[in-house]
Amino acid sequence: MAQVQRMSRLMVKTLRDDPADAETLNHKLLVRAGYVRRTAAGIWTWLPLGKKVYENVARVVREEMDAIGGQEVLLPALLPKEPYEASGRYEEYGDLLFRLKDRKGSDYLLGPTHEEIFTQVVKDQCSSYKDLPVILYQIQTKYRDEARPRAGVLRGREFQMKDAYSFDTSDEGLAEAYALHRGAYQRIFERLGLDYRIVSAVSGAMGGSQSEEFLAPAPAGEDTFVDCPACDYAANTEAVTFALKPASTEGHPAVEELDTPDTPTIETLAEHLGVPASATLKNLLVKVDGEIVAVGVPGDREVDLGKLGEHLAPAEVELVTAEDFEGRADLVRGYVGPQGLDKVRYIADPRVAPGTSWITGANKPDRHARNVVCGRDFEVDDYLDVVVVEAGDPCPACGAGLKLDRAIEIGHIFQLGRKYADTFQLDVLGQNGKPVRVTMGSYGIGVSRAVAALVEQTADEHGLCWSKEVAPADVHVVAAGKAVQTELALDVAGQLGAAGVRVLVDDRAGVSPGVKFTDAELIGVPQILVAGRRSAEGVLELKDRRTGEREELSVAEAIARLSA
Amino acid sequence: MAQVQRMSRLMVKTLRDDPADAETLNHKLLVRAGYVRRTAAGIWTWLPLGKKVYENVARVVREEMDAIGGQEVLLPALLPKEPYEASGRYEEYGDLLFRLKDRKGSDYLLGPTHEEIFTQVVKDQCSSYKDLPVILYQIQTKYRDEARPRAGVLRGREFQMKDAYSFDTSDEGLAEAYALHRGAYQRIFERLGLDYRIVSAVSGAMGGSQSEEFLAPAPAGEDTFVDCPACDYAANTEAVTFALKPASTEGHPAVEELDTPDTPTIETLAEHLGVPASATLKNLLVKVDGEIVAVGVPGDREVDLGKLGEHLAPAEVELVTAEDFEGRADLVRGYVGPQGLDKVRYIADPRVAPGTSWITGANKPDRHARNVVCGRDFEVDDYLDVVVVEAGDPCPACGAGLKLDRAIEIGHIFQLGRKYADTFQLDVLGQNGKPVRVTMGSYGIGVSRAVAALVEQTADEHGLCWSKEVAPADVHVVAAGKAVQTELALDVAGQLGAAGVRVLVDDRAGVSPGVKFTDAELIGVPQILVAGRRSAEGVLELKDRRTGEREELSVAEAIARLSA
């Protein structure tokens, strides 16, 4: 028999007004409907209704992880420093990591993710190729000391994640584990009722391991992604590539120097010459591991320094300062052009293709040059996708203009490869008797974040609006208030519960029908069954929370319909 | 269909030898059988088999908490300092508390228990007597920085607890919530298969709130309790009382002073006079909030300073030092007797009853007195049970000699009263329209500790030995090794799984039958079904893990028996 929850006994306090500090739907509605309560910045309490929704999401995740052979474990959240020092992440995480000492002064951290510890577990438990492949997962509390925890349970400092890790002896095995997770994630998000896109997370140009993100489009999302309206291409903006299309370097006029006083910026230059910014070539100087490098992009585009940094990692990228120009007669600040940069590495966006012609700096104060042709007057050392992607940029797959959308990252699957296995020397004995280095994948779903994403995508002006699989109950029975109505409501609730239906029944005394109806809409159970006006005749009204459709039903009809 | 777990795919590595540092059964066996792995001192990873057992215990706890109307919530483990400062526990916990700072320098702690936060939640969510009573619970990770984390998962620094809190407007309501929890705890521990005793945790002499502990007798236990072999009395040693039995003060010989050179201790005195230590009266001097107080107990008994401290709390008890005797001619060190202590408060054990006669100090150097009669020669200001309880002490209920036993505290129920409600001014509007201060109970079960207690109580020389309710599987099917045996084992396992039986099947290739049998005993699933010698005939051997009884069965008989 499923549980019948009586509102008269349930700890749920609904609010008419949004919390003062709430900016996002999930924060406003989960608090107003009594699902969660803020304990500290980015640290939340799950109240009874919220705990049910959270557990429903966790159950779906667990079922699908078990279905692909995942083995559930539970690792600690309080972790010793050493494994994270070995991987380098104890420092890399910077301020994101909660660090603490125990009574003896030993260093610990609160786990932000558990690659290191899982690697150690497998090193300890698996010694032969026969022990692999293995997929391990946990649904566990994670910690990240976000600089600006906000957006309700979307980005907490303490939050719940399902993290899984696969261990294989071959790249093919890893690819298979990756495909299994990809399929499981699709089933999970479909069952939860989330609208999602799978996007490439790492630029193909960089090669290397495969990585995809599961994004739930929502205005409150903190991620931007591109979406092609013409084909099925979608990607993290950082993963978008632009095809290099070389043209002939012949037939261009000769380079011509121009007198362009006081035009150290693209804006001043374009205005002075009366040309669009896109006709000019912008050359940004940066330092890569201390060495000055120039980055060329069309004058109307911005360089994405984060993307540049990822391309060049582990080298460090910094902006140049006035001191860097000292003693460098070849670098004329504000008037740099690639045609005079013999001693400087030149990186360019693929838009600066061979055969394109530009207005750019003449490497002399207050002077620019026109008809500067790539491949004739200068060479590009490395082509990298480093411009900030904009709406309308061509789709790498079909060429149509891309859309830019905001989304919530709800899942991430990643072929880690041997990074952690190398750190911890995770080998198993191979079939040929020799040690084989293990290859790993890591796969995450934000469980508490999925709840937030569901709210952002499905709530309407009346409140929450859950899918059947995650709703805290299947039916919300409302007793309008009179004795006969309460009696009917409790009777129907009891019968539904006996039939295995999860019921929330509003049997509160001294609460007006209007307040009860408003609360039912706010709480968002998919079906609302009202014992109202025609209760004496045994007639109830069934309302679909999402569509608003209403229908009158007898008790028998209601039981039959809802327990179907 | 229940899950069929194949050992060939399960991450479980059994060990023949105990871990070097293991002192207790649960530590040795849970590690050897591949249930848990140590991540750091007192910090454990639950491996696949361990996670199943842990979840089974949690499920039983959850079902019984739901049955008494408990509402499940989930509070954070990372908590702001302020509520714990308000209650005084931020300091009181001392080194037991893990403390840390976030990136902004604000103080946080890892929750050791959540009274403060639950009080705040209820203050926020409940405003009227109509919102109460309420029972809230969570199954959650707790943190205590134990000085000597040891004994496996029995006393971890990170561990799992079910903590519940009741909120009522009246003492009667609290008593009812307490009784509900007491019943639920009895059902939980019975279902888990734990042998337990319910013992009084606070001395009746002190009055006040009721508190009981659920103790699981086990040699590895860190608690000592008394148990009456003749009646059902059981108590924490600190809660044992001794009845005061006054006798006549008439008919005793007069006090007589004795010359007892160099006898400042009970041992030297008893030897000098040739009397048993029990004939002498020991007078311990302590300082209570700075004032000197004497505590009288029979010479053969020890004063339990912890117990004395609890009786006199919040006053602070310290031992006296040499300086405390300066200027106190009435206090002759080593020769104190109550008959001369007019200016000193005299506390005595009930064994020092009116009418008892003693040899004690004469309040002069090297002098003692005999025939010093309580009620004739000195008066007792307060009777308190302060002696260390010993085996053979009389049962307060029936007078029989008590037994002393070691046990593991697996549960604790406690009528907190209004302590936290006072701290946080937790009031609700009463029926008469006036605010009512709320009264609370707190109720804990160590979930990970219950797993350890089960091992300590039920394991045998072959390994773990789970009860059906908590076992990681119902049946452990062992394929002895040949193809026909493996085929039969997998066939039977499949059929059992289809019939709803949870099956672990040892289908490992290249592992000897002997190793498989030893592993099955070590892993401790209640029923072991072997596809061995007579597999070709379709005959299996069923072995009861606990009793060792064996029986040959056909496939059909085995399915019928095990799915019954």
From TrEMBL, chains A, B:
It catalyses: tRNA(Pro) + L-proline + ATP = L-prolyl-tRNA(Pro) + AMP + diphosphate. Consists of three domains: the N-terminal catalytic domain, the editing domain and the C-terminal anticodon-binding domain. HAMAP family: Pro_tRNA_synth_type1. GO terms for biological process: prolyl-tRNA aminoacylation. The lineage of its organism: Bacteria, Bacillati, Actinomycetota, Actinomycetes, Kitasatosporales. It comes from Streptomyces silvensis. PANTHER family: MITOCHONDRIAL RIBOSOME PROTEIN L39/PROLYL-TRNA LIGASE FAMILY MEMBER (PTHR42753), PROLINE--TRNA LIGASE (PTHR42753:SF2). It comes from the Bacteria. Its EC number is 6.1.1.15. Keywords: Aminoacyl-tRNA synthetase, ATP-binding, Cytoplasm, Ligase, Nucleotide-binding, Protein biosynthesis. Catalyzes the attachment of proline to tRNA(Pro) in a two-step reaction: proline is first activated by ATP to form Pro-AMP and then transferred to the acceptor end of tRNA(Pro). As ProRS can inadvertently accommodate and process non-cognate amino acids such as alanine and cysteine, to avoid such errors it has two additional distinct editing activities against alanine. One activity is designated as 'pretransfer' editing and involves the tRNA(Pro)-independent hydrolysis of activated Ala-AMP. One of its GO terms (cellular component) is cytosol. This is Proline--tRNA ligase.
